[in-house]
Specification:
heterodimer, A: seven-stranded mixed β-sheet, six-stranded mixed β-sheet, B: 254 residues, alpha+beta, four-stranded mixed β-sheet
Chain lengths: 827, 254
């Protein structure tokens, strides 16, 4: 038997004790963290587990301003739908609008303030606190302001509307600078200039597609990427099959078939840049055939004299008979509508062309009538925003100022000119001369990558704002944008950042609100008070105001119930359903504070506004007769378009078009948009160059062959794709890919056609004539990976898509939905 | 013997058109090709609603895309007289579905609402159904899919996430139908027209898609089915689809 003496015993006891302790510590260290079975024992008060909550806000994926309603569960946004009460979207939404959730939950967001520690563009970012970040920018701005150099501060932002524009203006006034610049690649400068020249209005008009009988579109991809695609889609559907009387017809005139061209009843190929000349030939035909009987008919006849259909046929590539036929139908069908878009407007003759196209509506008597072109009233807020929108030319001036050292601080908000301006503009190199660049963007895009300091903003689903859609819908309407989820990261509302900086730099300035929400409330109080019914008018107003409709709208939205049977009358519905100014007593039933806090009339208004998500008038103002100034008629005319590069050296005209998925590139970081097949070519995850099949055969090119596309300004490599609906001397390419930054889904994918565009501008507006660059194709002999989802591109007699001519429908009636019973004989 | 007789009798009944009219609902969708512009809003709406994974470029290059509704495109003619026509293609929820009869484990079956349902945790991945489907609208999970954080926070809690080896396809947003039926049951009524619409129908900007109950003669979809333009794709196969297409109207140039 082993003997244990006292010493050994104590050693063993000691070792055991240490071992036990160590074991305990070890176990504590490696055991799983505590997880609660129920994640929210005390749930936040604005949601119940398992029940969806819906919030109304405004889509920011493009500039159309659709009202949306977002489904949230347990504090997370799950699905975006159109807001049925909003006059623009009326419950509908496009693919990009749906993908807004991937902006919010994008893995590549900037999550915290960052400071560039290495060289610019090195990507060495040091996380900061907001206090540090804000004090850096405020300190510098304060120095500049107190030394009288406030004017050396530039705020370069994506376009702002409504009261956010007011906030931006006041912020700049506080700093003492006038350099507030909005930059959007596709801002419709040429259309605005044409409207101004013809009618003296500075608003975009409302195109009433839903009620039109005959639409002629000159290069306007109104269903894909132009102005307000969802609203145009609604109108298109109703005009086609949603009305009791006959079906509307659609004509598209353009060199390369767009989505709208495919949807049209007739697609007419025209040489790029000659759309305006075709419009003048149509006008000539209308006037010379006596289709226009106005007082100024003689002036029109004189001005249009050189543009007979026969004279322009060769120049435009459209047969004289076709022009005459379309013109006759246009004048003989009422209401008809002529619209001109980016295809026509982005040439050296863009404003003249759009003027000619818009004038067709004047000659055919389509102004201010249902189914025609309706003038929009001035928006309720955000006047002056249009003047801040920079054209290509004014961006060049900005670049020059940067090079000359006249800009000390650049604040960038969501704008990305480094990606959406041609390399020829040298904007990247110019911005690099600015001593301090601060970015407020949510993503690391090409412009933000050059910044010294990033103060990241919320995405639109976390932020406050408001919007008055442009183009409007013919009557005044607005919508509030409110957070639908708590901020995911350490980011801030753009407005909050600006307010904090303004308060630090100039505490005595006019901008006193502490938060964007407070600022907006104050602004909307002004609208509420201005439009509140007068004493004697109140009783009548209360009757007239459909108090229930506010409730009903909120109800509909809360349940996300679909539109009712009256969907066909939705424009009228939407007008009726929008929140009313000064809702009648009891219109807002819920009092958020049961303790007895009594909301005043404005609080009621504000709450119903947040609930319905939309505000507006329910009538369209009467419009008087419109006359066009005689000098405008005399001057009407469209020159031949000018192109950069000679046609011998550069045989093809390049048409870079806005992609439906990625728009100007801002959608490229959304995996859903990368994976959504392009509507016309089915290509996913990449760039391609569209070329006529016959031309491709002559050049010996097949789908997927990599070519160098060379313009006078540079070269990009991109695979070829034969496209049956493009003119032989034209090649087209979607904008949106070719990012060098912008996160894992976008960067290093495809090529950016904007890069090689020549700096051609439309002389009147200075906007980029992006359709006016010639290129040549140099085959590389290599193949590229062109990924497409589609199978066969031809039906081959399978009858998958069946068609019917008007009047033939009865013929099918006997065969409809036949079903052959299958009987199995019992054994 | 009697077992075989019984089986054949019920089989015959099941294959008879109109069998599902005897039940409460017969969910149907109509697609107006004269309104459809091919914009693809339905595709993204469906992806968002039904937790459809991002499969990536390589998978699509191998033909393994995963979109329950797609837009097929067919060119007609040559430049300059060229047309491009679109047709949204999704599970047709055939009343005589070829996919249902071949599944060895009955993972896909017809439920009493006329829906072609897929039981994910019964599916063993033989892919026979995809072979038999003439519309090619069944999609197989060749991999376990992954959402880069925090994209997974968008996932719809009402829809299960599928894993490798499982076939999936359009369900007519059955989670929305179930919810509408629950609400209707609590209120002691039938589901009314407009109570429920799948994600694609709700978002369609041109209102080309209409969804409803074929058994309700007043529903919008019953009315569109009676339109003289109505037809079924691949009608000759006699699959009795629950998706009705309305012919595209093509006018001569006027």
């Amino acid at each position: 038997m082993a003997s244990i003496d006292r010493r050994d015993f104590l050693k063993l006891v000691g070792a055991g004790g240490v071992g036990t302790g160590a074991g305990f510590m070890l176990r504590e260290a490696i055991k799983h963290p505590v997880e609660n079975l129920v994640p929210y024992p005390v749930p936040p008060e604005d949601f119940s587990p398992g029940i969806a909550t819906w919030y109304n806000t405004v889509c920011s994926m493009c500039s159309a301003g659709c009202g949306i309603t977002v489904r949230t569960r347990e504090g997370r946004a799950k699905k975006i739908e159109g807001n049925p009460s909003h006059p623009v979207s009326q419950g509908r939404l496009c693919a990009r609008g749906q993908a807004g959730l991937q902006v919010l939950y994008n893995p590549d967001r900037v999550t915290t303030p960052l400071q560039q520690t290495g060289e610019r563009g090195s990507g060495d970012w040091l996380p900061l606190t907001w206090t540090e970040g804000l004090s850096q920018i405020s300190g510098r701005l304060g120095e500049l302001r107190s030394s009288g150099q406030g004017g050396a501060v530039c705020l370069l932002s994506e376009g702002q509307r409504g009261h956010m524009h007011g906030l931006f203006e006041q912020f700049m006034a506080n700093i003492g600078s006038d350099r507030l610049v909005y930059y959007d690649y596709d801002h419709p400068h040429p259309l605005l200039a044409a409207m101004n020249r013809l009618f003296g209005t500075s608003e975009l008009p409302y195109f009433d597609l839903g009620n039109t009988d005959y639409l002629v579109s000159f290069g306007a991809d109104y269903l894909g990427s132009w102005l307000s695609p969802v609203h145009h889609g609604l109108g298109f559907g109703r005009s086609r099959q949603g009305r009791d009387h006959h079906r509307g017809r659609f004509v598209q005139i353009e060199p390369r078939m767009t989505l709208s061209g495919a949807a049209a009843d007739e697609w007419i190929a025209a040489i790029p840049g000659t759309e305006g000349i075709i419009a003048l030939a149509m006008a000539n035909r209308i006037v010379s055939q006596g289709g226009y009987q106005g007082d100024d008919a003689d002036a029109w006849a004189a001005a249009l004299e050189p543009y007979s259909a026969d004279a322009v046929a060769e120049q435009t590539g459209v047969a004289a008979e076709t022009i005459a036929r379309v013109a006759d139908t246009f004048a003989g069908t009422g209401p008809s509508l002529a619209i001109g878009g980016d295809g026509a407007g982005r040439h050296s003759n863009g404003v003249d062309a759009l003027t000619a196209i818009t004038a067709l509506n004047y000659l055919a008597g389509n102004l201010g009538i249902e189914g025609g072109l309706i003038f929009n009233p001035e928006p309720v807020a955000g006047q002056g925003a249009a003047a801040r929108h920079a054209s290509y030319r004014s961006m060049l001036e900005l670049a020059e100022d940067a090079r000359e050292g006249r800009i000390q601080v650049l604040i960038v908000n969501q704008a990305n000119p480094v990606f959406t301006m041609p390399a020829a503009a040298g904007i990247g190199e110019a911005l690099a001369r600015i001593p301090l660049i601060v970015s407020l963007s949510s993503f690391m895009d090409e412009t933000t990558a050059m910044a010294d300091l990033i103060l990241p903003s919320h995405t639109y689903l976390e932020a406050w704002g408001d919007d008055f859609p442009e183009p409007g819908v013919g009557f005044r309407a607005g919508a509030i944008s409110q957070p639908v989820v708590s901020p995911l990261y350490d980011t801030r509302d753009t407005g909050d950042t600006l307010l904090a900086v303004a308060a630090a730099v100039n505490p005595d300035g006019a901008l006193t609100a502490a938060t964007t929400e407070e600022y907006l409330r104050e602004q909307w109080r002004a609208i509420f008070e201005r439009d509140a019914p007068t004493e004697e008018g109140t009783a009548q107003a209360q009757e007239a105001i459909a108090a229930e409709t506010v409730e009903a709208a909120a109800e509909v939205v809360a349940q996300a119930a679909p539109e009712d049977d009256a969907a066909a009358d939705a424009p009228a519905n939407a007008e009726a359903a929008v929140a009313q100014v000064a809702p009648a007593e009891g219109a807002v039933a819920t009092n958020p504070d049961p303790a007895g806090w009594m909301p005043d009339a404005f609080d009621e208004f504000w709450n119903s506004l947040l609930r319905a998500g939309v505000w507006g008038e329910n009538t369209r103002a009467e419009q008087g007769p419109v006359t066009v100034d005689a000098s405008v008629i005399d001057a009407i005319g469209v020159d031949a378009p000018e192109f950069a590069g000679s046609s011998e050296t550069y045989p093809f005209i390049l048409q870079p078009y806005l992609s439906l998925n990625m728009h100007d590139g801002s959608g490229a970081n959304l995996p859903w948009m990368q994976e959504l097949p392009d509507p016309l070519t089915s290509v996913v995850y990449g760039s391609w160059l569209e070329i006529n099949p016959e031309t491709a055969r002559e050049l010996g090119l097949r789908d997927g062959d990599l070519v160098d596309v060379e313009s006078p300004q540079g070269t990009i490599s991109v695979p070829v794709l034969t496209f049956p609906a493009i003119m032989p001397n034209v090649v087209a390419m979607p904008v949106g890919q070719g990012h060098s930054e912008f996160g894992r889904y976008a960067s290093g994918r495809g090529a950016n056609p904007i890069e090689i565009l020549a700096p051609q501008v439309e002389p009147e507006t200075g906007s980029l004539a992006w359709n006016a660059t010639r290129v040549r194709l140099n085959p590389t002999g290599r193949r590229a990976n062109l990924v497409r989802t589609s199978g066969l591109s031809r039906d081959l007699g399978r009858g998958i898509i069946q068609t019917t001519a008007t009047g033939e429908a009865e013929e099918h009636a006997s065969t409809k939905l036949r079903s052959i019973p299958i009987t199995v004989e019992p054994a | 013997m009697s077992f075989i007789d019984d089986f054949l009798a019920s089989w015959r009944e099941y294959r008879e058109p109109g069998y599902y009219d005897g039940f409460d609902y017969h969910w149907t969708m109509s697609v107006d090709l004269d309104r459809c512009t091919g914009c693809g809003a339905c595709i993204t709406a469906c992806q968002a609603e039904n937790n459809i994974p991002i499969v990536g470029e390589d998978a699509i290059a191998r033909g393994r895309e995963m979109q329950w509704i797609r837009i097929e495109k067919y060119w007609e003619g040559e430049f300059p007289d060229v047309k491009l026509r679109f047709i949204p293609m999704l599970c047709q929820h055939c009343d005589a579905a070829p996919c249902e009869t071949v599944c060895p484990v009955s993972a896909t079956y017809h439920n009493q609402d006329g829906l072609n349902a897929q039981v994910y945790n019964r599916c063993i991945g033989t892919r026979s159904c995809a072979v038999y489907c003439p519309y090619e609208v069944r999609y197989f999970n060749y991999n376990n899919h992954h959402w880069d954080a925090p994209l997974e926070q968008q996932l719809n809690p009402d829809v299960s996430v599928r894993e490798k080896g499982v076939m999936e396809k359009c369900s007519f947003c059955i989670q929305r139908i179930r919810q509408a039926k629950d609400v209707a049951k609590d209120e002691g009524r039938r589901v009314q027209d407009g109570d429920v619409q799948p994600a694609c129908v709700q978002t369609c900007p041109t209102e080309a898609l209409v969804f409803g109950d074929q058994n309700d003669p007043d529903s919008r979809v019953s009315q569109t089915m009676n339109d003289e333009r109505a037809y079924h794709v691949l009608e000759e196969l006699n699959t009795a689809p629950s998706v009705v297409y309305l012919r595209k109207v093509e006018t001569d140039a006027v």
